[in-house]
Amino acid sequence: MRVDAGIEQRFGRHLHLSLGPSFERMRVDGGRLYAALQGQVSAGYQFTPRVFVRAILQYVDYQYNVSLYATPRDPRNQRTYTQVLFSYKVNPRTVWFVGYTDNRMGTDEYTLTQRDRTLFTKVGYAWTF
C-alpha cells in the first residue's frame, strides 16, 4: 500500500514551494515486512531570468520487521538529504551552478548523524555545429 500527497504553490512569478509526503507499507504472508514515511520539501526563487536558487530537504524513515528478513538489518533506518543550488545563466548556451549537499543517517542505535557533505560547482555549455 502506498499513499502519496502533494501540494505545490507559486507566489507570484518568483517564489515556488512544494511539499510531498508519502506513506508506504508492505505486507507478506508473515505480516508487515516494512513501513516507510517519506517526505520532501522544496523551495525555489527566480531572482531574474538568469539567476535562481533552490533548496530541497528530503526525509525517509523505514521501520522493518527484522524477523521476516533473511539477512540481518537494523529495525529502523532514517535518512535526510539536503541540497541548496544556485544557478547563473551566463548566456543562452552557458550555465554555471554552485551547490551544497548534506546526507545524514540514523538507526535505533544512533540518532541522525552526518555521513557526508559536498560543495560543488558545474559549468554547462551547449556546443552547436
Low-confidence stretches: none
The rounded Rg comes to 20 Å
- Characterize the largest beta sheet: strand count, sense, and whether it forms a barrel: 9 strands, antiparallel
Beta-strand percentage range: over 45%
Helix content: under 10%
Instruction: Let me know the average pLDDT.
Output: 94
Number of domains: 1
Number of helices, counting only DSSP H or I runs of 4 residues or more:
0
Alpha-carbon distance between the termini?
50 Å
Helix vs. strand class: mainly beta
Question: How many strands?
Answer: 9
| Shape verdict | elongated
How is the quaternary structure best described? Answer: single chain
N-to-C SSE string, H for helix and E for strand: EEEEEEEEE
Explain what this protein looks like in three dimensions.
The protein is mainly β and 129 residues long. The protein has one domain (2-125). 0% of the residues lie in helices and 72% in strands. It is built from no helices and 9 strands. It has strands spanning 2-4, 7-11, 15-19, 22-28, 31-46, 51-64, 76-91, 94-107, 113-125. Strands 1, 2, 3, 4, 5, 6, 7, 8 and 9 form a 9-stranded antiparallel beta sheet that branches. The protein is elongated. The protein starts with a strand and ends with a strand. 1% of the residues are buried. The mean pLDDT is 94.
